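WARN retry 2 of 3 for item q-0093 after timeout on previous attempt; input resubmitted unchanged.
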Amino acid sequence: MHRYLVYVLALVLLPVSLALALAQHWPAWYWGVGLFGAMALLGTWDVLQRRSVLRRNYPVLAHFRYGFESIGPEIRQYFVQSDLEDVPFSRQQRQLIYQRARNAMDVVPFGTLRSTYAVDYEWINHSMAPTSIPHHDFRVVIGAGCARPYSASVFNISAMSFGSLSANAIRALNKGAKLGGFYHDTGEGSISPYHRENGGDLVWEIGSGYFGCRDEHGRFSEERFVENANHDQVKMIEIKLSQGAKPGHGGVLPAAKVSAEISVTRGVPMGVDCVSPSRHSAFSTPVELLQFVARLRELSGGKPTGFKLAIGHPWEWFGIAKAMHETGLLPDFIVVDGAEGGTGASPAEFIDHVGVPMNEALILVHNTLVGLNLRECIRIGAAGKVTSAFDIARTIALGADWCNAGRGFMFALGCIQSLSCHNDKCPTGIATQDPSRWRHLDPTDKAERVRNFHENTLRALRDLLGAAGLNDPSELGPEHILRRVSPIEIRSMAKLYPYLAPGELLDRVPDHAVFHAYWADARSDSFEPPPRIAALRGTKLH
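OK item q-0093 returned
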C-alpha cells in the first residue's frame, strides 16, 4: 500500500480540508483543497491511464521521479561533478571561459588541481631563454595564390547555424568577431540577416542541402551561389562533407519549425520539411569534389575555398589526396572536425561512437599532405573541444594552422551547459528559437564577451609561446608537447605519433599502419571501398 500512500492521503485529506474550509474555522484550508484536489486528480489520472506502468503503480509519486530526472544534469553540474570532470566540459574549463569573457581575473591560486603524475597528463616545455612577443594577434594567410586571399586569426568561431542558434546569439557572435578581427563560420544553415547586421567576417559553409544556393529541387544553383558568395563580408567558402558530432548523417528540420526567416535564409519553402541529405548531389567522386572546389573558387571571384570533414574510412580521405596529386586541383584549406565536436542534436550512437577523434584525424590529414609535398599549399584548420590557449598550442603542434571553437564561444555568450540545445528550451536564449527566451540575450553585451574571450585566450597563447622560447604559433611542433604515458614514462607527441617526411608518399608506402593498409588501394575516381574490403563484407553472406 505504500505505493499508493500519497494518492490515498490526497483522497482522504481533500474532503477533510474542504469541510474545515466550509465551516470557516480554518479558511486557510482552501489552499489545502486546491493542493489535495490537484493531487487527487493527478493520482486518479495516473491510475486510469495505460501508457505508463510506473505511473499506475506509483500514482503521484512517479512524478517526483520524473521531476528529479529532468534536473539531473543541473544536479550533477552544480553538486556532483568534480572541477575536472569533462562531460562534456569541466567546471574548470567553463569557469576559465566565463572569467576571460568578463575580463575578470583568470589566475589560479595555491596549485594545480590536476595530478601531474597521472597517465595522459600533458604539458608544454618551457625555455631557459624565453622570448618577448610584442603582439597577440596571430594570423595565418589562407589562399595565398587566390585573387582574394584571407588573413585569418588562429582562433575563430566554428560552424553554428541560425536555426540551431537564436537570432541574438548570431548577432552577438558576429559582432564579437567584428570587434576582435576573427571569423564567424555560418554553419550549413546559410547566411541569415543576423549574420549581416554587424559586418563580421564570414566563412560561408555549404552543406549537402545547399542552403542559400539551391534551386527549387534542392540541387546546387550557381546563380544563387554567386549572389551570396560575392558579398564582401564573405571571406572564404567551406564545403561541409561531414561534421564530427554526426558524420555520415543528414538531418530534417520539421515543417513546423521552418519559420519565414529560416525559409528566406535557407531558400526552402515553408510548410515543408527542410531536408539536409547525408551526401552531396553536386559530386560523387574525389576528383569531382576537387572540381567543385575549383568551380566555387571561380564563381566567388577567387576567394579561398576548401572543405570540412570528419575522418572516417581512411581510403576515402586517401582517394581525395590522390585526386589532388593526380589532377593538381587543390583546396586552399581543409578543416578537420574531430569526433568530440558538438552539435545541437545528434543520435546517441553517432555522437558517442562514430568518427575519428581530432588528434588522430588531424595527424592523418597533415601526414598525407606532407607525404605528397602538398602541405605548404594547403592550410589546415581543426576543431574539437578547444577552449584554452594550451588547447590551441597543442592542436597547432600536432599539425593545424589554426583552430575553431563552437561551444567555447557559446560559453562566452553565457551558456551554462544545461544540455537543452535539442528541445528549444535553452535557459540562456542561445540555442533556441523561442523569442520569449532569446530576446533577453543582449547582443551588444555578449559581443563584448565574445571579443574578450578571444583576445584574452590569444594573450595567454602569446605568453605560452614566449615561455617556450618561440615567436609565433607556426613554430610549434609535436616535440613541444609532452604526455605522461605511465607514472614513470614520458613521451613527446613526436614520439607518440609517427610523422611522415616530406614527399615520402611519392617514393614508397610508409611504415605506418593506416598507410600500409589502405594507401595502395585508394582511388581518386571513387569513394567505394577497395576490393579486398568489399570481399570481407561478402564473407558474411555465406
